[in-house]
Write a structure and sequence with these properties.
The protein is of the alpha/beta class. The chain is built from eleven helices and eight strands. It starts with a helix and ends with a helix. Bound molecules: phosphoenolpyruvate (PEP).
């Protein structure tokens, strides 16, 4: 497929983490909403929780989508500090990141908890963006495929048990690449994405799987990822905070 044709259908997820305050998130969108729309690409902005509602008002009727960075594995109840998938739906989220390596690391999230989060999201018709990826040590020991298998197995199980058709994004993010400037080589990535594609194609449900790459993506290195088949889009951290950098990646 020609790069420019492929680019049109690609998904670009901006994970702002806790890097922008509420005011900064609002100002970013107010300033760049017209330029974001003009890019004519599938862009998803994922600010922190307090910014979701104001951004949903600003993005209303636009082609730019809203995503959260996490949700509760529970439906509702006495879970202080957690945010339900239902609230995310009510606030206008169409996507939600779950299982980011920073949450797996700092919040000790397990694969089964992440699968529960994905279930809650699917019940609310929110598209889960499920992050998976190996550590530097696992990469060096050539354990990446085993790690991905272990991370995805519980997720596949719950997704495949859903009766209705859904869309699920799987974001391959090698931990050693996040925020480091180090990116995997093309051949290595091709093997990973061929494997992920094979696993998803073998599933029998009506689920549509979209495969993303994340880890130090910039406007300077994006071209090399287009050589890898089966990458349907990108999850971008650092380079999504600055509009000009995001624009360079997306366009
Ligand atoms: C991320 O944290 O999901 C990420 C991809 O970050 P960065 O682009 O900064 O490596």
């Amino acid at each position: 497929m020609k790069n420019n044709t492929r680019n049109k259908s690609m998904l670009f997820v901006a994970n702002w983490k806790m890097q922008k305050t509420l005011d900064q998130s609002i100002q970013f969108v107010q300033k760049h909403i017209d330029a974001l729309k003009a890019l004519n690409r599938q862009i998803i902005l994922c600010p922190s929780f307090p910014a979701l509602y104001p951004l949903s008002q600003l993005l209303e009727n636009s082609s730019v989508f809203l995503g959260a960075q996490d949700c509760s594995p529970h439906e509702l109840g006495a879970y202080t500090g957690q945010v339900s998938a239902q609230s995310l739906a009510e606030v206008g989220c169409t996507y939600c990141i779950v299982g980011h390596s920073e949450r797996r690391n700092y919040n000790k999230e397990s694969n089964s908890e992440i699968a529960q989060k994905a279930t809650q999201l699917l019940h609310q018709n929110i598209i889960p963006i499920i992050c998976v990826g190996e550590s530097q040590q696992e990469f060096e020991k050539k354990q990446s495929i085993d790690v991905l298998h272990n991370q995805l197995e519980p997720v596949f199980k719950v997704i495949e048990s859903q009766s209705s058709a859904s869309t699920v994004c799987i974001a391959y993010e090698p931990i050693w690449s996040i925020g480091t400037g180090n990116v995997p080589d093309t051949q290595y990535l091709q093997n990973i994405f061929d494997t992920l594609k094979e696993w998803c194609s073998a599933k029998t449900s009506k689920t549509k799987y979209t495969l993303l790459y994340g880890g130090s993506v910039t406007g300077e290195n994006i071209q090399q990822f287009y050589q890898v088949e089966n990458i349907d889009g990108f999850l971008v951290g650092g380079s999504s905070l600055d509009f000009q950098k995001l624009k360079k990646i997306v366009s």
